[in-house]
Amino acid sequence: MEVTTLVGKEKNANRVINVVSIVIPVVVALILGIRQKFDLGSWTTYLPHINGVINSLTSVLLLVGYYFIRQKNVAAHRAVMLAAFTLGSLFLIGYVLYHISNESTSFGGEGWIRPVYYFLLISHIALSVVVLWFVLRAVYFALTKQFELHKKMTRWAFPIWLYVSTTGVIVYLLIKPYYTH
Q1: Cα–Cα distance list, 21 to 17, 34, 36, 144, 156 (Å)
Q2: How far apart are CA 54 and CA 140, in angstroms?
Q3: What is the pTM of this model?
Q4: Is 50 exposed, middle or buried (CB count within 10 Å of its CB: 0-12, 13-18, 19+)?
Q5: What is the pLDDT of residues 38-49, one digit of tens each?
Q6: Which one of 7, 118, 135, 174 is at 20 to 30 Å from 54 when CA atoms are compared?
């Protein structure tokens, strides 16, 4: 394959990753701003609890994937990381479905836990926007066998993604008592 073809494919992939990394957070923000909710059924009230489990599993898979790559078990690392990526995608779908069909739950905690909750929530949200670009790039580099670039990207992607998935669980556990369903 010609070098110009490879460069063109690389530019297209970068463009897609950049667009997706911007479009998804913007669409999610717009969805959160919609006041009109759609009746998708009562099953959607279970989605925060399912997403809590998904985030927990994602955190575990990220750590297991890290362990496997440190052991140089590339095949196991690949399988676990693709499972984590799949769970992240399912989380996003569940999150959107919940928020288009249910009102947001307010945190009712008081005292010292309130600023802790909001710090975790705000940092979780901010980094969840940022991590998408890093994760998409890391996955792209791995799938295209650009392992040095993959390794460089995961130096950022891994700790941010682990923080986002773990704080997602903590935020969920802190707000869980205030769900009405």
Answers
A1: 6, 21, 26, 19, 15
A2: 23
A3: 0.89
A4: middle
A5: 889 999 999 999
A6: 118
- Residue-wise pLDDT for 155-179, tens only, equals 999 999 999 999 999 999 999 999 8
**Residue 97 parent element (H or E):** helix 74-101
C-alpha–C-alpha distance, residues 17 and 22, integer Å: 9
CA distance 116 to 121: 9
DSSP reduced 3-state for 102 = coil
- CB-based contacts of 121-124 (< 8 A; 24+ apart in sequence): 121/167, 121/171, 123/163, 123/167, 124/163, 124/164, 124/167, 124/168, 124/171
Q: How many CB atoms lie within 10 A of CB 64?
A: 17
Helices 147-175 & 74-101, crossing angle to 10 degrees? Answer: 40
| Amino acid occupying residue 121 | L
- What is the biggest distance separating any 2 CA atoms in the chain, rounded to whole angstroms? 63
Residue length of the chain = 181
